[in-house]
Amino acid sequence: MAEQLSQSEQDYPFKLLEYINGFKISKVIFTASQLGVFDLMLQCQKALSAECIAKELHTSQNGLERLLDALVGIDILDVEIINGKAFYSSTDVSDLYLAKASPKSLSNMILYQSQNIYPLWNFLPDAVREGRSQNEKAFGASSKDTCEAPFRCEEELLKFMGMMHSTWVFAAHDVVTAIDLSPFKTVVNLGGCTGTLAREVCLVYPHCSVTVFDIPEVVKMAKKHFCGIDDCITFKEGDFFNGELPEANLYILAGIIHGWEEEKCLQLLHKIYAQSKPGGGVLIVESMLNENRRGPIFSQLLSLNMLLQMEGKERPPSEFFKLLTTAGFKDIQVQRTGKCYDVVLGIK
Question: What region holds the O-methyltransferase dimerisation domain (predicted)?
């Protein structure tokens, strides 16, 4: 039964107003990131006036001061009033997660959300009515090319890969430690993109040999923009739907299954099962829904986002169990991380 409203909530719907205005908060963060506010604050490492910041970023003082105040209001920046004048400074949150120079920066994710995701959500009513992707209306991409949208040009591909890199920078450790993967000596991360998740597998399980298997365009860009000289992983080019899979004890599918309808998911899982030896397995990493449909809200919103972008959806544990058992896997383990992404392991 839904929670009863208190008298305070009946008189003034604080939470509802917060939700209704949520898109404005997103745009405040997107805009500050785009203008370079967080990069400047990290670089200076001291409190600055709105006048000084506006001059450095080539903006109006009037507009920037309002933006800075909003960032203070959501606890992303700090402010101190000295002799009646406001001086703004960074916080641990802005330095760690929002400045581009930070190794944990979410700036690539913010760029992708702002330019590629935010415009799509204008078409949510159409997506709900039609039950299909809205890439064609939002960006002019043919519905047949929905899944290839990030690969239209090098700039779009790099933006998409940067978003994926940001995602696994903060989520990878919880994912690879949720279930003990030490029994698996060779690991292939199918569609592993920049290799960020694969590198975490190497760090946690240094005895493992880890390979990222992705299409040639992605591998080329990963090596160019996201790899170091002493990288602990290897890259292999291929198409996991249409080509042969590399041999491995464990195949990782992170953010892959939610992109497709059930038939195509089963096609891939059957293929992995056929390639696996007894004792081998597949690790699915996704944002799982609750069976009772009461959350998590992150997963529910992500499922709507998949409707807008592709063919797939987020799923509860029971649906992953069904997919894996249908493909032949057994000894299925489901582990919630308590964060954004959860894991499901199936063994042959």
Answer: 17-99
CB-based contact 195:292 (threshold 8 Å): no
Using an 8 Å Cβ cutoff, are 337 and 286 in contact? no
Question: What is the per-residue pLDDT across 146-161, written as a single tens digit (0 to 9) for each?
Answer: 555 556 688 889 999 9
Decide: residue 156, CB within 10 A, 0-12 exposed, 13-18 middle, 19+ buried: middle
Residues with Cβ < 8 Å from 106, sequence gap 6 or more?
A: 97, 98, 166, 169, 170
Alpha carbons 284 and 266: distance in angstroms, whole number: 13
Distance, in Å, from the CA atom of 330 to the CA atom of 121, rounded to the nearest integer, reads 38
Helices (H), the chain: 7-11, 14-20, 22-35, 37-44, 50-57, 61-73, 92-93, 107-112, 124-130, 135-139, 154-177, 196-204, 216-225, 262-275, 297-309, 317-327
What is the number of alpha carbons within 13 Å of residue 259 lying toward its C-beta? 13
Q: What span, in angstroms and rounded, lies between the C-alpha atoms of 252 and 212?
A: 9
| Residue 92 confidence (pLDDT) above 60 | yes
Q: What is the CA radius of gyration of the chain?
A: 22
Residue-wise pLDDT tens digits, 214-260: 999 999 999 999 998 778 999 999 999 999 999 999 999 999 999 99
Largest CA distance in the chain: 73
Our answer to whether residue 258 is catalytic in this structure is yes
Structure tokens at 233: 């992983």
Q: Phi/psi zone of residue 296: left (φ > 0), alpha (ψ -120 to 50 degrees), beta? A: beta
CA angle 199, 202, 207 (to 5 degrees): 165
Q: Which of 58, 173, 207, 258 is catalytic?
A: 258
DSSP states of 139-191 as a string?
H---GGGGGGGGGSSHHHHHHHHHHHHHHHHHHHHHHHHSS--TT-SEEEEET
Distance of CA 197 to the CA centre of its chain: 12
Helix (H/G/I), strand (E/B), else coil: 104:
coil
157, 184 Cβ separation under 8 angstroms: no
Written as six digits, the tokens of 79 are 């402010």
- Is the Cβ–Cβ distance between 219 and 250 less than 8 Å? no
